[in-house]
Specification:
alpha+beta; 4-stranded mixed β-sheet
């Protein structure tokens, strides 16, 4: 079987947990959560890019700034390849190039975003769709990444409710230190005794309402992640010192942090300042530019 299509590119935007509350733990050990999930703007520097072209057989090539972090990983185990297998059964005759612009093990769902982008692209090429229960084997972030729009996520991430959020300026900053998610949850479980129970529901927020909500919320994994990676505190402090930063917070299980700004101008100044002062950090404009 072959597919006749013109080569094309799809974006895999970073997932950003504006808040993340741990609400319980299932008997199988998975933690239940409640999170407001946002995504970087397409075409921003906070996206992986996946390029698709016809081929005689399936292949996955990984390039880009953070490709070295995956060089020792068997391509058969990459979430892009696994997504292709789940959707198509046999791997389709398509050449995929993953341009890895997002840091790995960074709390911004890069692998899940890549898998979701692959599923969207191959669904377009083949006309196939995967069963929801199969998709969850690709990770808890996969349902939200398939939506790739603001949503409230619950359960272990499979219960998704799309919401409407305003436009605003947001920077992402990563201290160039990988933080494995299992270690963060293990540290959290060893320290945390009381789960969150906010039960937040809404359909739409303006900017003031969003800031008010975020001011009352938090990332329950942040303290545990900082024990593993103290550099997270350095990033949060650096963001807080920038003019116009209204909220600095860690995303997901870290170590990426975000800063929400009062406008594009101050966010742009902060971007330049942070890139100059901390050249080893990954600092990008993710929204509002």
């Amino acid at each position: 079987m072959s597919f006749d299509f013109q080569p094309f590119t799809v974006f895999a935007p970073a997932k950003i947990n504006l808040f993340l509350h741990i609400t319980g733990r299932r008997p199988d050990g998975y933690h239940r959560l409640e999170s407001l999930v946002e995504f970087a703007d397409p075409h921003s520097k906070a996206c992986d890019n996946l390029h698709f072209a016809p081929a005689e057989k399936f292949s996955l090539k990984i390039a880009g700034k953070f490709s070295a972090a995956l060089k020792d990983t068997d391509p058969q185990h990459n979430l892009v390849t696994r997504a292709a297998k789940i959707l198509c059964g046999d791997l389709p005759p398509v050449a995929v190039t993953l341009e890895k612009n997002l840091p790995v093990a960074a709390g911004i769902g890069g692998g899940s975003a890549d898998a979701a982008a692959c599923l969207r692209a191959l669904s377009q090429i083949t006309g196939k769709n995967a069963a929801e229960h199969d998709l969850l084997t690709l990770g808890a972030d996969l349902p939200a990444c398939l939506e790739s729009r603001p949503c409230l996520a619950r359960g272990i991430g499979e219960d998704i409710c799309p919401v409407t959020l305003p436009r605003y300026a947001l920077l992402l900053v990563h201290p160039d230190v990988p933080v494995p998610t299992p270690e963060v949850f293990k540290t959290y479980a060893a320290e945390q005794q009381v789960f969150s129970n906010e039960n937040i529901y809404f359909q739409s927020l303006n900017f003031e309402e969003l800031l008010h909500l975020l001011g009352k919320s938090r990332n329950d994994l942040q303290n545990a992640a900082m024990r593993i990676c103290p550099e997270i505190s350095d990033v949060l402090n650096a963001l807080q010192k920038e003019k116009g930063c209204l909220l600095p917070r860690m995303s997901g299980s870290g170590a990426t942090c975000f800063g929400i700004f009062d406008g594009r101008e101050n966010a742009g100044i902060a971007l330049a300042n942070l890139q100059k002062t901390y050249p080893a950090w990954w600092t990008v404009a993710a929204k509002g530019f």
